[in-house]
Design goal:
This protein has helices spanning 34-48, 66-71, 76-100, 122-130, 148-158, 192-197, 205-213, 228-233; strands at 13-18, 53-58, 105-109, 118-119, 134-138, 163-168, 173-174, 186-187, 189-191, 218-222, 240-243. With 244 residues, it is of the alpha/beta class. The chain has a nine-stranded mixed beta sheet, with helices on both faces. A two-stranded antiparallel ribbon has the order 7-8. Strand 1, helix 1 and strand 2 form a beta-alpha-beta unit.
């Protein structure tokens, strides 16, 4: 029995922003759960079959956060660099899982560590994408005080991504926190200006400003619902779209 071919992608190139928590086990709390990453890799392979070029920025919150380290007495600059190294660990874990699925990948980092990854070079990243490789960006922006949201917006701008897909635990952007406010309503579509005026927590301010300036749509969606990633990529109305 032949497999049904994937629907064509609505985008030529996307950047997928993942939090480090996506890699955790929901049951054991294990920081990097092999079964979770393997499931993600299978999803990504199916998405790649739609013809879209895929880049990923992953956070490191499942291992370490600089801001939390500061509350425990670690210098903020040092803590942020520790967090950046955590994102590289996650990037390598994702690379391993994808390559076990037969997906060719490259990891590029903002902090040079040539024994394990390429340094970030914009033209090289775009060339990898054009050859059908998934490019995973680790190391954040390479600078303290900037979140991986900002790194995602920066890399999306640099590689000329058609959209930035923000994978979350909720199914879009709401008028208020839907956990605390059950009557909160979900937006299907928002303009950048509306999101700013209503102070909606789409991404942090620096990341949001980059996307707005470079006219990169942000799609916020529930990553944990099976099939959602492929639906977003193939143009189904999933989550919330923030655009002009």
């Amino acid at each position: 029995m032949s497999k049904t071919p994937s629907a064509p992608s609505a985008f030529k190139r996307i950047l997928l922003k993942l939090s480090g928590e996506v890699l955790q086990s929901k049951t054991t709390g294990q920081s990097i759960a092999p079964d979770v990453i393997a499931s993600f890799a299978r999803q990504l392979k199916a998405v790649q079959a739609t013809g879209v070029e895929i880049a990923i920025v992953v956070g490191g919150g499942n291992i370490f956060r600089g801001a939390i380290g500061e509350t425990r007495g670690i210098d903020r600059n040092t803590g942020d660099y520790m967090g950046m190294l955590a994102t590289v660990i996650n990037a390598l874990a994702i690379q391993d899982a994808l390559e076990k699925e037969g997906v060719e990948t490259r990891v590029q980092t903002a902090i040079e560590m040539r024994q394990v990854a390429e340094p970030f070079i914009r033209r090289r990243a775009i060339r990898h994408l054009s050859k059908g490789r998934v490019v995973i960006f680790g190391g954040g922006t390479g600078n303290p005080y900037f979140s991986t949201d900002t790194a995602a917006a920066l890399r999306a701008s640099e590689i000329d991504a058609d959209a930035l897909l923000k994978a979350t635990k909720v199914d879009g952007v709401y008028t208020a926190d839907p956990v605390k406010h059950p009557t909160a309503k979900r937006y299907e579509r928002l303009s950048y200006q509306e999101a700013l005026a209503q102070q909606l927590k789409v991404m942090d301010a620096a990341a949001f400003a980059l996307c707005m300036e470079n006219r990169i749509p942000i799609i916020v969606f529930d990553f944990f619902k099976e099939g959602n990633l492929e639906k977003v990529v193939t143009g189904h109305p999933i989550g919330t779209v923030v655009t002009e």
